[in-house]
């Protein structure tokens, strides 16, 4: 078994070695083996033993060798003319072992496949064959007998070329050598030049003769054709002129006949036209006469109508102007009355406030004297005597204040009642005046605008009366509140004083203060009841007055509408214009009244705001009716805006804490904090005054020692840029 395995392994190894050493050939190649066993050639495959054999591969495919002769090296023909020729020779190694061995032994296997080596090998032989064959043919024959020329080349070269085989050749290019490439000193070239010139000259002469003959023939044909054309044109013109003469004669005869007929017809037409113009003139004169009569009648009618309309318009314009003037006068009167009332209210309010302030100052003086007296008694007498004196003083002051408050409340109530009665009388007078004017307008029928004006005036006066009553009530409530505030203030002061002096006196003072408060509350309740009763009476009277006015207003409106309808039926066009005018007047009046009401509401609201905000302030009022309020509100708004800006801005908050905070060395003093902030950088006034704000802050930032200071200066720089103060000089701010 082992022997079989060894034999199998040996056989497999032998087969592998043989397969390894066996070399195969491809198509177009020949394998040449040299070495042991002489030279062997194979076209399919052969065994090559390393060390013993050497294998070479020879390319036996067909190769192309190009032989080109041109110019002075051109092919010389039998007639001594040179020809530029290019011939392709197709050569290959003969596929026989002996020829392959011959080629391998003569030039080597590798050079046998090199095209350049083959061209150098066969160039001289092929060129000599071309020259030999070319000398047997004239140039024209060479050109015409290309196949014969090729066969003779193959015959001279032969097919056996020391192992190579010439399969075929092809004449790729064949042309006469140019004269410029020929050498005149060469005998053969000179002969060729002579023949070329002779042949070309003869051909040129013949070509020129043919060209000239062609030109003469063409010219002759052109002349004959031109003569024929002219003769035909002459005949055509003669025929055309003859025809034109005949046509002109015919047209003249026809025109003469037509003119004769036209003259006859024109005569008839002219006669008819003259007759027609006479009739038309007569009719035109009759029509103009009738038109003139109609125009004059129309002018008379238009003049009458125009005069009537002008009179009506003049009456209407006068009436409108009168109504507008009355309305304007009434409006101005109402405005002046309203302004006067507002000024009166303002003056009364100022007078009351001055009296209140004077009374408060007197109370403060009395309180100060009592305190001084009490301090003096404390030093002299015992604690009880001091307490009793202080209590008696405080109770007396409270009683005086209560009496003053009662007096002011009664005075305000009396003023309100007087103003209410005055307003009722004014409303009654206005209502009576409106009834009279409305009755007059209803009788006339064309003055409804006055009725509307009277009604508006009545409404306005009623509103003014209501406003004055409400203002008086508001003043009374305000003054009563001030009295309560003063009483409470005095009570609190007495209470505090009693606590400081003695605990026993505190009980007695509390008892007296309670009694005073009870009396004040009782008086306040009585005053409130009186005010409520007065308000109810005023509302009742106002309702009765409004009902009466409404009843009379509706009656007057009904009569006015009836009169208006009658007037509209009488004057249709004029009534329409009058209605439009009244509508515009009502609209303007409504707008004016609305503006007055708005201004009054604004003034009332301003008074309430000022009263609440400046109850205890001592202010000298300077300015008009709205200037003082606008200035106060503007100042408050600006202050609030500044506070809100500082509160919402981190930068301004940092600046506030740095220069206005209590934690600085200067406390809350801005100058001390600013001086402390500048002194830490060692800068003097002279160093700063010549710098801008941005430059100063930049210098301070460069000298800062800690991050907090640099952050503060950086925030100040941003604030200065935002406010537009970066380029402002410091000396302008000092």
TrEMBL record:
Q: Which UniProt keywords apply?
A: Coiled coil
Entry keyword annotation includes Coiled coil: yes
Query: Is Coiled coil included in the keywords of this UniProt record?
Result: yes
Q: One GO CC term of this entry?
A: plasma membrane
InterPro entries assigned to the protein according to its UniProt record, in alphabetical order: Band_7/SPFH_dom_sf, Flotillin_fam
Query: Coiled-coil segments, which residues?
Result: 237-273
Q: Where in the cell is it found?
A: Endomembrane system
**Matches recorded under PANTHER family:** FLOTILLIN-LIKE PROTEIN 1-RELATED (PTHR13806:SF31), FLOTILLIN-RELATED (PTHR13806)
The protein's name: Flotillin family protein
Lineage at the top is: Bacteria, Pseudomonadati, Bacteroidota, Cytophagia, Cytophagales
């Amino acid at each position: 078994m082992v022997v079989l395995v060894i034999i199998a392994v040996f056989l497999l190894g032998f087969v592998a070695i043989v397969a390894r050493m066996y070399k195969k050939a491809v198509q177009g190649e020949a394998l040449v083996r040299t070495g042991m066993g002489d030279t062997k050639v194979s076209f399919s495959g052969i065994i090559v033993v390393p060390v013993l054999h050497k294998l070479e591969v020879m390319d036996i495919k067909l190769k192309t060798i190009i032989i080109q002769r041109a110019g002075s090296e051109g092919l010389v023909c039998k007639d001594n003319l040179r020809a530029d020729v290019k011939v392709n020779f197709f050569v290959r190694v003969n596929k026989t072992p002996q020829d392959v061995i011959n080629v391998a032994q003569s030039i080597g296997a590798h050079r046998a496949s090199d095209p350049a080596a083959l061209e150098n090998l066969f160039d001289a032989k092929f060129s000599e064959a071309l020259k030999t064959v070319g000398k047997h043919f004239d140039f024209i024959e060479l050109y015409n007998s290309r196949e014969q020329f090729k066969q003779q080349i193959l015959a001279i070269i032969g097919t056996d070329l020391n192992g190579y085989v010439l399969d075929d050749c092809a004449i790729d290019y064949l042309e006469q050598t140019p004269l410029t490439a020929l050498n005149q000193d060469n005998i053969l070239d000179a002969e060729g030049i002579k023949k070329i010139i002779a042949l070309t000259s003869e051909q040129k002469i013949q070509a020129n003769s043919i060209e000239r003959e062609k030109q003469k023939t063409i010219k002759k044909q052109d002349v004959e054709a031109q003569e024929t054309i002219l003769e035909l044109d002459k005949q055509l013109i003669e025929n055309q002129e003859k025809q034109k003469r005949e046509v002109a004669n015919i047209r003249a005869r026809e025109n003469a006949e037509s003119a004769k007929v036209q003259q006859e017809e024109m005569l008839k037409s002219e006669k008819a036209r003259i007759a027609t113009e006479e009739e038309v003139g007569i009719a035109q004169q009759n029509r103009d006469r009738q038109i003139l009569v109609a125009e004059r009648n129309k002018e008379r009618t238009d003049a009458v109508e125009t005069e009537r309309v002008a009179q009506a318009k003049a009456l209407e314009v006068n009436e409108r102007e009168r109504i507008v003037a009355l309305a304007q006068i009434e409006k101005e009167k109402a405005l002046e009355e309203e302004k006067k009332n507002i000024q009166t209210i303002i003056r009364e309010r100022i007078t009351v406030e001055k009296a209140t302030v004077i009374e408060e100052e007197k109370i403060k003086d009395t309180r100060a004297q009592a305190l001084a007296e009490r301090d003096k008694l404390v030093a002299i007498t015992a604690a009880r005597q001091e307490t009793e004196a202080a209590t008696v003083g405080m109770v007396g002051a409270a009683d005086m204040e209560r009496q003053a408050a009662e007096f002011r409340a009664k005075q305000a109530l009396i003023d309100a009642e007087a103003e209410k009665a005055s307003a009722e009388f004014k409303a009654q007078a206005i209502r009576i005046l409106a009834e009279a004017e409305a009755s007059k307008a209803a009788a006339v029928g064309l003055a409804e605008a006055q009725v509307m004006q009277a009604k508006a005036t009545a409404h306005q006066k009623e509103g003014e009366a209501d406003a004055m009553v409400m203002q008086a009530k508001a003043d009374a409530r305000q003054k009563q509140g001030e009295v309560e505030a003063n009483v409470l203030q005095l009570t609190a002061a007495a209470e505090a004083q009693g606590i400081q002096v003695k605990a026993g006196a505190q009980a007695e003072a509390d008892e007296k203060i309670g009694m005073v408060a009870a009396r004040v509350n009782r008086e306040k309740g009585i005053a409130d009841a009186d005010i409520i009763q007065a308000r109810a009476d005023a509302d009742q009277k106002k309702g009765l007055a409004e009902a009466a006015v409404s009843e009379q207003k509706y009656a007057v409106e009904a009569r006015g509408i009836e009169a208006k309808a009658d007037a509209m039926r009488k004057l249709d066009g004029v009534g329409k214009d009058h209605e439009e005018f009244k509508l515009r007047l009502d609209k303007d009046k409504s707008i004016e009244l609305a503006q007055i009401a708005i201004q009054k509401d604004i003034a009332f609201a301003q008074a309430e705001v000022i009263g609440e905000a400046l109850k205890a302030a001592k202010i000298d009022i300077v300015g008009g009716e709205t200037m003082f309020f606008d200035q106060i509100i503007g100042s408050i708004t600006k202050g609030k805006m500044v506070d809100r800006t500082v509160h919402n801005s981190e930068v301004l908050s940092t600046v506030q804490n740095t220069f206005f905070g209590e934690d600085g060395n200067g406390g809350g003093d801005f100058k001390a904090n600013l001086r402390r902030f500048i002194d830490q950088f060692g800068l003097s006034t002279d160093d700063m005054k010549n710098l801008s704000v941005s430059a100063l802050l930049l210098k301070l930032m460069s000298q800062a020692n800690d991050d907090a200071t640099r952050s503060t200066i950086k925030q100040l720089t941003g604030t200065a840029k935002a406010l537009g103060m970066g380029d402002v000089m410091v000396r302008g701010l000092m």
